[in-house]
Amino acid sequence: MNSLVLAVVGVAMMIAGYLLYSRYLSTRVFKLSASFRTPSHELEDGVDFVPTNKFVLWGHHFTSVAGAAPIVGPAVAVIWGWLPAFLWVTLGTVFFAGMHDLGTLWASVRHRGQSIGSLSARFIGARGSRLFLVVIFLLLLMVNAAFAVVIAGLLVSTPTAVIPTWGALVVAVLIGQAIYRLKWSLPLVSVIGVVALYGLILVGDAVPVALPESVLGLSPEAFWIVILFVYAAIASMLPVWVLLQPRDYINGLQLFIALGLLYGSVLLFRPEIVAPAINTNVPEGTPGLMPLLFVTIACGAISGFHGIVASGTSSKQLDKETDARFVGYFGAVGEGLLALGAIIATTAGFRTLADWEAVYSAFNEGGVGAFVDGGGAILNAGLGIPTSLSATILATTAVLFAATTMDTGVRLQRFVVQEIGLIVNVRLGTAAATLIVLVVCLGLTFSAGADGSGGMILWPLFGTTNQLMAGLSLAILAVMLMRKRRPVLPIMIPLLFVLFVSVYALVIQLRGFLADGNWLLLALDVIILIAAVWVIIESAIALHRARGSEPEEDEEDLEVTAGEGRAE
Amino acid sequence: MRWRERWRAFSAGLHEFYVAPYRRTFARARRDEDDLFRMLVMSEMLGVPNPAAYYTAELLPVLYDSFHDWHRRMGLERSPLENYRCC
Known about the structure:
The structure holds two protein chains of two kinds.
Chain A lengths: L2 H27 L9 H4 L11 H12 L3 H9 L4 H28 L6 H8 L2 H32 L4 H19 L5 H21 L13 H18 L6 H26 L19 H8 L7 H14 L6 H25 L4 H7 L7 H17 L3 H37 L6 H18 L10 H26 L5 H28 L2 H30 L7 H7 L6
Chain B lengths: L1 H40 L11 H4 L3 H14 L14
C-alpha cells in the first residue's frame, strides 16, 4: 500500500465529511441560522465578546486545539497496524470530533457563550458543575504529566532539538517587542520569526546538547522534567502578552508549515507503507486493540478538550451562527489531518518491516520518537533535507506544541485549584495555587517511574479522561436536542460508544495496575472510574428527564437564558 | 489590482490573527481596573463604609453608562441596587 493512496483517501473522507455530514448536522440537527443574534453581537463588549471573521477565528480555534496529542496518540497506536488507527482517525474525525466540536460551539452560542462547565450545571443538574471540575482537574493533571515526559524524552533522544526549543522562547519575546515597541509590519515580522526559528534549528542541528549521565543526581530525563515544570510554572504566572502570545503566534505559523512539509514530501516521495495493515504479531504485553485503541488516540478522533476551547473563547467571537460549521467542524478536520500525517510518518517512514518492528518493540515504545525518525526519513527523501536536520525540525515542532499545551495546562489547572479552594472556603493566591499544581504534577510524573520514563503509562489514562470529558459535553448536547425533539442519534451513538470504551479501558487498566502493584495509578484509575460512572448516571437521569419534559420551541432557549445571568 | 486587494485582505487577516488575543488581554486588564474603581465609588451603596463617600458621590453619574454592562457581567440580570436602577 502506498502512503499517497492512504493520504488521498483519508483527506477525501474528511473533506466529504465536511461537505456532506456537517451540512446535515447544521441544517437538520443543530439548525444553524444566519439570522440568529450570536453572543458576540448581543453582548459585544470589545473584550471577550467580539465578532470575528470566520477565517481568523478558525485560525485561533485550530491552533488552540491542535498540539502534540494528535501526534503522540496515533504514533503509539499504529502498533496494532495502520488500518485500525487510520479508520478511527478518519471516521472519528467525521462522525465524532467534527460533530462534537460543532455541537459544543452551537450549544454555547445558543446560551450566551456559556462554557461547558456552566452548561453542565444547567443541563446535567446541580452536581454537574462539581463533576465537571473533577473531570477537568484530572484531565489537566494527565496532560501536564504526560507532556512533560514526552518533551523530556524528545530532548534526550534528539539532543539537536535542545537549542531551538529554548531559543524559540527568546525569539518569541523579541517578536513581541518588535511588533509592539518597534511597530514592524506583521507579514515582515512573521517571516523574520519563522526564519529565526529555522535558523535556530540549523544551529541546534550543528550543536547538539546532550546532558551527562547524571545531572545533580538526576537522570537526564528527570532533569528535563523538573526544568520543564519550573519553566511552565513561571510562564503560567507571567502576563500572557510577554511570552505566550507571540509564541503561540509563531507556533501557529509553524503548525501550518510543518503540515505543509509533511504532506508535501509524502506527495513528492510517495513512500511505501512498511507496517502491516493489521499487526498480527504484536509484541509481548501489548494490550488488546479493543478498547485501548480508542483511548490511545483521543485528540485526532474525539477530544473533550476541544469542547472547552469551543465553549470558552470561540463561541464568544462567532460572528454568524452558520460560521460554526467552518470553525468547529473544519477545526476538527485540521486536527484529523495532523493525526493522519502522524500515522503516515510512523508507518511509511521506515525502510523495512523489520526496522519498523525494531522500533515498535513494545507498547508505548514507538511513540513520538518514531514520528520524528519516520517523518525525518520522509522529509529527507521527499525534499532532500538531511535526515538529522529533518528529525530536528520535527522534534522541535513536537516539543513546541507540547510545551505550549503544558504551560496553558498549568495556568488552567491553577484556576481549577483556586475554584476548588473556594468551594472548601480556602482562598489561594496565584503562587500558592501554582505550587500545589506543580507538586501534584511532579508527584504523578515521577511516581510512574523514578526517572520519569514510565510516565507514558499515563497516556491511555489521559485519553480516557479526555473521552470522559467529551462524553459529558455530548450528554449536554443530547439533552438539549431531546428537549427540542430533534434527531439525537448522531449524538447518542457516539456518546454511548465513547462512554463504553472509556469504562472498558479503565477496567482493563485497573487490572494492569493491580498486577503491577502500582498503587498511585490504581487509585487514580479508580477515581476516574468513579467519575465515569457518575457521568453515566447523571446523563441517564438528565436524558430521562428531558424525554419526559414538554417539547421545547426552537427559539425557546433564548428566553430561558434571558432569565438568568452568566455564571462566569 | 485584484491581487493587491487580496494581499491586503490576507495581511489584515494575519494582523487580526495576531492582535486579537492581545487586545482581549489588555481590554480585560483595563476592565478589571475600572471595576475596582467602581467598587470604590459605589462602596457606600453596597454597604461598605467609605470615608471619601462625599467626594466619590460626584462620580456616580459618570459610571452610570457602564453600570448595566457591569451588573450583567457580574451575573445579575437586574440592578442589585434599589436606588440605582437601570433596566
